[in-house]
TrEMBL record:
One of its GO terms (molecular function) is porphobilinogen synthase activity. This is Delta-aminolevulinic acid dehydratase. The active site is at K202 (schiff-base intermediate with substrate), K254 (schiff-base intermediate with substrate). 5-aminolevulinate 2 binds at S280, Y319. Signal peptide: none annotated. PANTHER family: DELTA-AMINOLEVULINIC ACID DEHYDRATASE. It catalyses: 2 5-aminolevulinate = porphobilinogen + 2 H2O + H(+). The keyword Metal-binding applies. GO terms for cellular component: cytosol. One of its GO terms (biological process) is protoporphyrinogen IX biosynthetic process. Pathway: Porphyrin-containing compound metabolism; protoporphyrin-IX biosynthesis; coproporphyrinogen-III from 5-aminolevulinate: step 1/4. Mg(2+) binds at E239. The lineage of its organism: Bacteria, Bacillati, Actinomycetota, Actinomycetes, Micrococcales.
């Protein structure tokens, strides 16, 4: 042994005890950084389980308020609310997303009344839950998604959500110019107080599969003409530049784990808070593997969320939010 050079530096010294490791941990996960996405469905008497997302449900208005309180009391930073209308309320332009008493706006109103400013209420600003064809926008005569016609609907939807009580609106449809029209519509109505969380880098991902069940989506075909190609990295910096120019208050990368490189790029370039969304398929993968005893679920939850934070996300949207907050002792 003495013939060999001994290591001069010994990184293992700082790994020796749990207390040492805790002291030098560079990334900390805190419940306040987490946002819980929730689904509220019209016309149901009891919460409905979502087969592909064990443990996640479509809420009734009552169970939604309960879940929101639970999340808040566990220290979770906010909620992202998705509405699931009755099938007969879907139409070609998604009007059910605009009406005051539509499932999403009604739920936002109730949540704001019940929780006030004790949490951050975010609303999904997109048409796919409300259109009968399942696309995120309105269609043109050729059946393609009409960017600019869709923007006009988003503007109205933003106002409806602001009136209903959203603190933050989250345009997620990947239409060009969506942040600008939403900002202009809000400002024009005197709602300079409502923030915009831009879905800046949103990839056309297979990881949204379970979400389609969660919102009872009727989509046939795909979203490849508006969501980003998984092969592209620089394009996200272009989307970031545009969203910042258009007034985004926060920007988001989605999905999270398969796109940590993109998240890292965006975090390095952005001068606003960066969020990442651990989406339905990421949740389903962990649940599926854990249910077969293939890996340790709680460790996976904490490790994936920590990795997403380490890559640069300040805020993480995750279906595990409330549970993770408890795991973290929040
Ligand atoms: C669009 C939207 C989607 C998700 C969030 N907002 C679906 C899609 O783009 O196809 C997916 C979230 C998830 O998979 O958890 N309204």
């Amino acid at each position: 042994m003495t013939a060999y050079t001994r290591p001069q530096e010994r990184p293992r010294r700082l790994r020796a005890t749990p207390a040492l490791r805790r002291l030098v941990a560079q990334t900390r996960l805190h419940p306040a950084d987490l946002v819980l996405p929730v689904f509220v469905r019209d016309g149901i008497g009891e919460p409905q389980p979502i087969r592909s997302m064990p443990g996640v449900v479509q809420h009734t208005p009552t169970s939604l308020v309960r879940a929101a309180r639970e999340a808040r009391d566990a220290g979770v930073g906010g909620l992202m609310v998705f509405g699931v209308p009755r099938p007969e309320d879907k139409d070609a332009t998604g009007r059910a997303g605009l009406s005051e008493d539509g499932v999403l706006n009604a739920a936002l109103r109730t949540l704001r009344e019940e929780l006030g400013d004790t949490t951050v209420l975010m609303s999904d600003l997109c048409l796919d839950e409300f259109t009968d064809h399942g696309h995120c926008g309105v269609l043109d005569d050729a059946g393609g998604v009409d960017n600019d016609a869709t923007l006009e609907v988003y503007a109205e939807m933003a106002l409806a959500q602001a009136r209903a009580g959203a603190h933050v609106v989250g345009p997620s449809g990947m239409m060009d110019g969506q942040v600008q029209v939403v900002r202009e519509a809000l400002d024009g109505a005197g709602r300079t107080d409502v923030a915009v969380l831009a879905y800046t880098a949103k990839y056309a991902s297979a990881c949204y599969g379970p979400f389609r069940e969660a919102v009872a989506s009727t989509l046939t075909g795909d979203r490849a003409t508006y969501q980003q190609d998984p092969a592209n990295r620089d394009e996200s910096l272009r989307e970031l530049r545009l969203d910042l120019q258009q007034g985004a208050d926060m920007v988001m990368v989605k999905p999270a784990l398969p796109y940590l490189d993109v998240l890292s790029d965006v975090a390095a370039a952005a001068d606003v808070p960066v969020a990442a969304y651990q989406v339905s398929g990421e949740y389903a993968m962990i649940e599926a593997a854990a249910s077969q005893g293939l890996l340790d679920r709680d460790r996976m939850v904490v490790e994936t969320l920590t990795s997403i934070r380490r890559a640069g996300a300040q805020v993480v949207l995750t279906y595990y939010a409330t549970e993770a907050a408890r795991l973290l002792g929040g």
